[in-house]
Every structure is written in C-alpha cells, then in structure tokens.
Amino acid sequence: MQISIENLNKVYPNGNWALKDINLEIPSGMFGLLGPNGAGKSTLMRILVTLMKPSSGKVTVNHLDLMKNRREIRSMLGYLPQDFRFFAKLKTWEFLDYTARLAGMKNRSQRNQAVDRMLEEVGLFEARDRNANRLSGGMKRRLGIAQALINDPKIIIVDEPTTGLDPEERIRFRNLLSTISTRDVIIILSTHIVGDISSTCENMALLNRGKLAFAGSPEQLVKEAEGHVWLIKATEREYLEINEKFPVISTIPAESGWEIQVVADSINGYYGHPIEPNLEHAYVYFMENKLNQWTTA
Ligand code: ADP
Asked: Would you say the CB of residue 38 lies under 6 angstroms from ligand 1?
C-alpha cells in the first residue's frame, strides 16, 4: 500500500489556509501524524477519508486518484474518529453486527464469523453480551477499532488514538494496532501526543500551522535534535532567567539549585552539557526552534 500526497492545499471558505503545499509519501505500516492543535491534521484526515475536497493538489492511493475513485477508495477505508460514540442501546456484538451490515456484509453466517473473529481480536469476546454503552473507556475504544476493521480495510485512520485511556489500556491499544500493522495495511495515527508515536510508528510526519515540518522516521527526527538539548545545572538565581531564555522541557530540584533540560543551540554562560535527545525533546526542538525560522518566512 502507498498513499502519495502532492502539492496539497486546503483553504477554507473563510480564508483559513489549513494545509499549505503538502508533499508526503505514506508507505505500509504504522504512520504517525503529529502536530499541535490547529496544525491541520483533521483537515488532512478528512481529505484522506474523502469527506472533504482539497483546494488544489493530488492524492493517490496505490496510483488511484482519490478524487476520481472515491467509491473504490472508501471501500478500502476504516476510520476511528476521535469522538467515536454510539447512541443505540445495543449489545457489543449487536453493535459490531450492525456496523458490518453498514459496511455491506450481507451474508449472515459470514457476518457472524467476522464479528466473532473481530471480538476475539480486540479482546471483547467475553463482553459480547454486555451493553456497548456500558463498556469501560478502553473497551469502547477497542470496539471503535473493531468497527473500523470489520470490513478488512487497507487504510486505517485513527484520530487521537489514546485520548481518555489509562496507561494500561493505552499499551494494549497500541499493541493491537501494531499487530494489525504487520499485514499489508497503512495505519495512520493522528495525534498531538508524542508518546502515541514513539514506540510504534516506523514513519511519521510533523505538521505545524498547515505546513509539513518533517517527514521521516522517529529516529531521524531525534537525530536532528542532537546537540540541541541541554541539561543546565542552575542556581536559584538563574532559575527564572533560564525559564525566560529557553524552551524548558523539564525541571528537577537538585542539591544546590535545579537541573533544567532546555532546547537551545548553545547555553553560553550557564553550567551544563548536551544530553541524548528523545522524541519528546526533538518535538519541542522542532516546534520551538526550527519551525520559528520557517513559519515566519
Ligand atoms: P488539527 O486537527 O491539527 O487541530 P485542523 O485541521 O482542525 O487542525 O485545523 C487547521 C486550521 O484550519 C485551524 O486554523 C482551524 O482553525 C482551521 N479550520 C478547521 N476547520 C475549519 C472550518 N470548517 N472552517 C474554517 N477553518 C477551519
């Protein structure tokens, strides 16, 4: 599977320029789309799931033009929106059966099989007779992924994957997506939480204010931040000054003052040393330093 995005622009009728000349290749596997609120992630997702037309540019899925083959591409899509909700009072299996019918699975015994297999896969088989709207947050999220996967989609789009999940459910949900990503599918995780990306995505893109700020592997992003993350050993007197001067990542009390992690090209005048960046550091580096140069251009 391959999605190619070429010179994509979206300007809303009120003049908001939500996507600015995006060029991006999305291969099979898990793909993270990271960016702060307002970056343009939802706009891009809405275009990819064919709910909205771009202002200009082109998207192809395995060489099929997205705008010209909407019906065919829709049949390849599974979508888990951020605010996945269900209103009907249905048992868990009934809900999934209902979404399978919506997806066009007409044959009843095939549908029953697919529903049972899906319930097993997301770990909800035991809960199949429980009312779907009584499930826990994590279970609802898993039911959400089950409904997105029921028609065996080739492209799975998950918006804000771990919102509202506790740490254990978060890990479970991520592992579930990782397992699915070993098939020949594309899973796009759209998120503003760095932790959603780090452990699972082979490739990622960083969006900010409608522009593509980075595309590559999380490791490459981290590499670009090398030498730009510092640990400063600060005195009480320096503490406020440093908070004003640099983007601060963390502050820990130390023996005679503070240990402050900052993003900076250099820390002239302060006592400290560069540290090995992680993805969160790299994200701050891109947002605070690199991007400021680009977005003001
Ligand atoms: P994200 O999902 O990363 O938070 P969005 O795609 O929702 O970003 O928004 C990108 C930009 O487009 C923001 O400036 C937002 O205010 C604007 N925007 C989003 N939806 C609309 C809309 N329907 N009409 C006008 N502007 C919009």
From this structure: yes
